[in-house]
Each structure stands twice: as C-alpha cells, then as structure tokens.
Amino acid sequence: MSKRIGSTFKTFLLMSILIFLSGCWDTKDINHRIMPVAVGISAEDDEYKIYLQIAKVNNGKIDTEVVIGQGRTVNQIVNNISADMEASVDLLHVKVIVVDNKIAERGLNDLVSGFMRSRDVSSKALMTIVEGDIDHFFQTMKQDPGKTETIPIDHFEKNSGWDPQIALTRVWQVYKSIHSNTQDTVIPMIALGETTLIKQIGSAVLKDGKVVETIDSNETLLFNALKEESAQGKIEVLDDASVVILGNTVDYQSKLIDSRPELIINLKFKVMVLETRGTTSEKLIKQQLRELLKVRFDSMFSELQEQQADIIGTGKFFRNKINSSDLSKWRSEYYPNLSYQFNVSVDIQNEGNLKEPSN
Question: Is 7's pLDDT higher than 70?
Fold first, then answer.
C-alpha cells in the first residue's frame, strides 16, 4: 500500500514539474530573434505591404537593413518573412510605426485594433504618417556603413532629434481616440527632406481613426503646450525680437450654461529674450507673443470645430456636467457650439539686450 502511495506521489510530482516547464516551450534565444526598430505599412488593393527596418551592430556602428513583405494581414507577412530569414522576427521592440498617408485617410481602425488585440507590437510604439512614396522613404533610410544613428527613431527621441513642435502619439493613444466620445488625437507627419534626411511637415488630425484635417508645425507646438507637453527650447520670432521658451503650464476652467459649454484656457509661458531689433520693450514683446499665439489658436480651433475633431480633449472637462447618455453627442452637438476664452500670460525670465547698461 505504501509503495503504491509513493509511486502515485512521484507521478504527481513529475506531472507538476512538466506543467511548469511547459510555460517556456516557445521562448527563443535573443540571438535567434530579429527585432526591427521601425515598421512601415502601406496598402496595395486589399493587401498590406510591410517594411521592416532592422538595425545591425557592426564593429560598434549601426547598419540598417530593410526587409519587405506583402500579404493579407500584418501577422501573415511577418510569419512569411520569419520563414525566409535565419531567425524569427519579433515586433515587440518596434519603436516607430510609419504609416502611408493613403492608409491614414482610409482609416487606421483595423490596423490599430489588430496591434492592440495581438499585442505583437508594443502599445507604446510611436506612430507617424509619411507623405510621398513610402517605398522610396525606406530605401533612403538604409544607412551608409559607419553611421551610428537609426532614423526615423532618433527624430522622435527626446534626448536626440525631437523638437517641441513634433507630436508624440503612441498606438494606445490612437486606439483610445477611436473608441472615445470626447477625445481625438493627432499623428505627426514627415517626409523626405531636401537638405535633411527627414522633414517635419506638421500633424494629421484623426477623427474616428481617419485623417480629416492637418495642422502645421507651429500649431502642433500649441497643441503640445495645451496637452501639457513641454514646449521648452522652441524659438518664436516676433516683429521686434526673438524669444526661446523655457517652460509652460496650462489651466482649464469649464462650465455648462443652458446646455452650452464654455471653457477658459489659461496658458502661461516662461521665455528668455534672445535677440532684439531696434528699440523695443518688455511690454511690447509680451504683447506681440500673446497676439501671435492667440491668432494661431483661433485659426486652429475654428478649423477643429468645423471638422468636429476635439484633439485638445476639451470634452473631458464636461464629462461630469453632461449626462452619460449624451456624451456620444459631444462632437456633433456640444463641441461645435463651445465658446472659449483663450488667455496667454508671458513671464520674461531673462531680458537679455533689454537691460539698460549701468552708468
């Protein structure tokens, strides 16, 4: 009897060990995985065309290879490419997803939903739209041997080539905007430059996953500031001076009067004077900067209201003031009738050449 119990216990113990071992059956050594740093996606008829930008370290330098595949789905293409390569393709470390403009105009719903559902691509990966021929774009991205940077990743890295007038939009933010009643978003737009490799041309406004409008780089800077993204380092050229932004904060106050939303926006900038032209004053510089930003905001916001695209997310300030059953009407009924007061305050931290020399 005791032998039978002992035999049963040993069998149970072995089965338990096998259960724990089975959790690692599909793991692969990192040396047997290919991890693209950027992915390009275009569409031809009913099929996707995928560009995998693969960085390889060679004697301390980074060389870039571009592998192309075509198929009905992204997963199918990646599997086919993996079958033809010496290692398995792993998309989890992709940093930037470059989407062809035609796909963005048609809609990103299926593509982004597939990323979120499969989790093969990180939800934190950045998205951008490329103007022009995407095939030519990725062929140009092939680096000459000896270069250390990886483009377009460095274009969006804050410790590298990022600029405050470049939007940073991730996969999960696009997915959230598609399924939100009160929040849209933007995606940065790039193209091949004439004297530089990449040229920033503004941002595409997404509504329900489709491009409905575009904003330029200056308006993107304002968008970033209103979303509490740092605008530090941006230089604004005025009539009588040029200033650099040192910091920014924003505050919102909302109220609903007779079913009409009203919003007060208080945007504050800390700046430093870089150059002056002729005789000017601190008061005049502040006035010119306030007027410049106000004209820029009024132009952008009127276009957004016309397209019923709430990229700033003003609707979130009224979610506790509007019945949940009416939130689906935010874009069509409330947002176009939103009245606002846009206030800009400027604090000059360093007056530079405005300081009078002491006698």
Answer: no
